[in-house]
Design brief:
Largest sheet: none
Oligomer: single chain
Radius of gyration: 44 Å
Number of strands: 0
Length: 149
C-alpha cells in the first residue's frame, strides 16, 4: 500500500513525527513515502521541531480554588437592585444614626431651605428686567439719535 501526501499529513498529525511509533500496518508505507519525498521529509522536520517546543514547555499545576472559581463564574449573577434618590438619602442618613425627632427636624429644615431657595430664585430681587422694558418701537428704531436709517 502506498501513501499519498494527504494521507501522510493526516497520519503525521495523529501519530507524531516519529514514524517508528506509528501503528504496524501503516508504518512501512509511511517510511517508504518519507524516503521517496523531500517534501515529506521537510514536513517531518517541522513536526519534530514543533514537538520539541511542546516538550520543553512546563506544565503549571492549577490552583486549588480553580474548580470553585469555575463554578462561581458559571452561576448566574444577582442583579443589583435599582436605586433611587429616596433610597440613597435614607441610606446616607441611616449612617449617622439619628433619632426620629432629629431626623424629622433635619427633613423639615431641608424642605424649608428648598422652598426659600425657589422663592429667592423666582423673585425679582436680583434686578431682573422684564421683556416689556426692552420693547422697541419701529419708529424709535428707524429714528435712532435723530438720523433716519
Amino acid at each position: 500500500m502506498t501513501m499519498n501526501l494527504e494521507q501522510f499529513k493526516e497520519k503525521l498529525l495523529m501519530y507524531g513525527a516519529d514514524i517508528r511509533c506509528w501503528p504496524k500496518d501503516i508504518r512501512s508505507s509511511g517510511l517508504k513515502a518519507l524516503y521517496s519525498s523531500p517534501e515529506l521529509q521537510k514536513l517531518v522536520e517541522d513536526e519534530e521541531r514543533f514537538e520539541r517546543v511542546l516538550n520543553t514547555r512546563r506544565y503549571e499545576e492549577p490552583s486549588r480554588d480553580l474548580a470553585g472559581r469555575i463554578v462561581a463564574g458559571a452561576l448566574p449573577k444577582k442583579k443589583k437592585a435599582q436605586r433611587n434618590l429616596g433610597v440613597f438619602f435614607s441610606e446616607v442618613l441611616s449612617e449617622f444614626s439619628l433619632s426620629r425627632r432629629t431626623f424629622a427636624a433635619v427633613s423639615v429644615s431641608l424642605i424649608f431651605t428648598l422652598i426659600v431657595g425657589f422663592t429667592i430664585g423666582y423673585s425679582n430681587l436680583s434686578g431682573y428686567t422684564s421683556a416689556e422694558q426692552y420693547e422697541t418701537h419701529l419708529e424709535d428704531f428707524l429714528n435712532y439719535e435723530g438720523d433716519v436709517l
